[in-house]
Amino acid sequence: MHIRVVLVLLSLLCQSLGTEARPLRDNEIPPSLAPWVPWVLYEERDRECPFIHNQPAVRRCAWPSRLVLKIDQGEGEFIQFWRVYRESWIGLPGDLDRWPQEVQVDGQPASVIEREGKPGVSLSPGRYQITGRWRWERLPESLYVPPDTALVSLIVNETAVSSPDIRPDGQLWLKQQAGKTALEERLEIQVFRRIID
Question: N or C: which end of the chain has fewer CB within 10 A?
């Protein structure tokens, strides 16, 4: 008799292990609980945001595409596409000295907001194309690029730069440093001879 009870309990346990827990869909929430959903999920604002590969606890709610910069002696312009999953502040290239002008989001003028000395725009969820430009008297040595920008296409004076020099502090160097090209193409050889008399 006890063996039958144990077998029944084991079969019920195995059946319960076979079912998987999943979040309720919106249409599965009882109507009496629906008004409580925003309150319950208040701390879970990032739940719709994708996580970073191999780090499920780290979620990112705004994803940039390649940043394209076209720079010359008198002006520069940028274009970048973004995918935003919840309202986010999107950092733009530039800083207080080189503030982006004529910034547009999907072809419409956008208000650029300063945060800790850096320009940016606030966007709600969706897909966006952001453009802007700068004007200057002469080509600056560097330009700040937000740290979440992974891919940069740089064109300086109509010449594509194959490997843009972006420093850890976010500075993208626009001018070749003196001697850098020569150093890259230079070959040093030291010859030692042993003379036995």
Answer: C
